[in-house]
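Incident log, support desk, overnight shift.

02:14 A customer reports that sequence design results differ from what the structure should imply. Their input is reproduced verbatim below. On-call engineer (initials T.W.) acknowledged and began investigating.
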């Protein structure tokens, strides 16, 4: 996306002093390349795009048009998928909170639900008993050791006897189709994928007489990350092809004895890997002051606009100066508009800056817009900018006071 001060100033005049810029073509290309790397080794691969990472409807529609699944963890996300035209059978439901009403909705619609707990399993059995003429599609989320000190709170402990009793019980209910198994861990490092793949393949062999319909290895993949951001991480950022070599290559070897139509589908649930580098956040510098020797700029944005990582790292930032002759700084902090003392978008900036300049943050497509609270100001618009013909498309309008307070009784 080719930007300059004039372009940003023109957008600001139409849409306000802060806004997101979306590049949906990059999102589409990321999907094609990500899936393509896995299919080189294991053609029977598909994706369930993680709605929770960024549920911008335009992006979710692209996923559906490409024949991939919507991966949702709530009725809110499920209803969005249905609203934009996703067929229920193309929705994968995960997450630890599914009450009976929600489970009935998902299962009776024909979506595939990965059960997370024994309580959910009980509810599924009740629903199966009450709807004997409907076939219910489920999987089980599995929890096992992946050589990490963190004990995940999600899914079933597959080392317990109770788990295998539950599997047999569900597998013997006539109108329940136990189609596969699922795992997801928060680790993004490449090394963590080898034990999870090996263990879930071993588990599939132990549970199923023949291969299951699918094996879902979840998400947690790095996407394309700016070099300045990579340097701040404690672990190396792998490329798509490296994940594919570890995961898809192992699947290909493990199921080489099966005919293609008998092999399970390898399901992946990327979020950040596809959307992380597809959005920019733009804010304007409102004021610059010096407090007891410390240079601090105030911007029209907030750290809440640019995601979860801002408390520990500086997100990649580019400054667009109005004038080339403005002041230079050696160690300036850029603060947000909120009244939270810790609201800083960037610390230790070195370079030219003055009031009315724009600061543009990249790699903020993941867990940013979906995490922005209705705090102090409504959220800002999302604009798709096409630099080839200078056209703007409003993907999400500026929120209003009415949006924020419409659910309150006044």
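02:41 Re-run completed on a clean worker. Output:
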């Amino acid at each position: 996306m080719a930007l300059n001060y004039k372009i940003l100033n023109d957008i600001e005049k139409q849409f306000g002093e802060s806004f997101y810029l979306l590049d949906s073509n990059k999102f589409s290309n990321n999907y094609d390349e990500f899936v393509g790397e896995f299919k080189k080794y294991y053609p029977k691969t598909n994706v369930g795009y993680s709605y929770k990472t960024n549920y911008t409807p335009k992006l979710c529609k692209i996923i559906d048009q490409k024949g991939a699944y919507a991966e949702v963890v709530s009725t809110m996300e499920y209803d969005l998928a249905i609203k934009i035209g996703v067929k229920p059978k193309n929705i994968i439901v995960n997450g630890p909170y599914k009450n009976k009403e929600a489970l009935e909705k998902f299962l009776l619609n024909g979506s595939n639900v990965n059960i997370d707990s024994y309580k959910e399993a009980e509810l599924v059995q009740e629903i199966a008993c009450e709807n004997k003429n409907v076939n219910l599609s489920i999987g089980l989320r599995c929890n096992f050791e992946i050589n990490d000190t963190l004990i995940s709170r999600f899914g079933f402990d597959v080392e317990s006897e109770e788990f295998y009793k539950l599997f047999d019980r569900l597998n013997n209910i006539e109108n329940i189709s136990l189609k596969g198994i699922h795992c997801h861990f928060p680790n993004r490092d490449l090394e963590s994928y080898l034990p999870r793949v090996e263990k879930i393949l071993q588990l599939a062999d132990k549970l199923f007489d023949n291969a299951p319909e699918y094996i879902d290895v979840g998400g947690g993949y790095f996407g394309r990350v700016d070099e300045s951001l990579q340097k701040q991480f404690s672990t190396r950022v792998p490329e798509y092809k490296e994940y594919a070599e570890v995961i898809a290559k192992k699947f290909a070897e493990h199921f080489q004895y099966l005919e293609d139509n008998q092999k399970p589908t390898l399901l992946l649930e990327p979020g950040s890997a596809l959307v992380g580098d597809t959005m920019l956040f733009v804010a304007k510098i409102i004021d610059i002051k010096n407090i007891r020797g410390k240079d601090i700029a105030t911007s029209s944005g907030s750290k809440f606009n640019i995601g979860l990582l801002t408390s520990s790292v500086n997100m990649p930032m580019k400054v667009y100066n109005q004038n080339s002759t403005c002041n230079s700084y050696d160690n300036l902090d850029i603060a947000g508009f909120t009244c939270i003392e810790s609201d800083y978008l960037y610390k230790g900036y070195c370079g030219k800056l003055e009031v009315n300049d724009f600061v543009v943050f990249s790699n903020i497509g993941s867990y940013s817009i979906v995490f922005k609270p209705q705090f102090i100001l409504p959220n800002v618009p999302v604009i798709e900018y096409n630099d080839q013909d200078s056209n703007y498309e409003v993907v999400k309008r500026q929120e209003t006071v009415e949006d924020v307070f419409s659910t309150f009784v006044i």
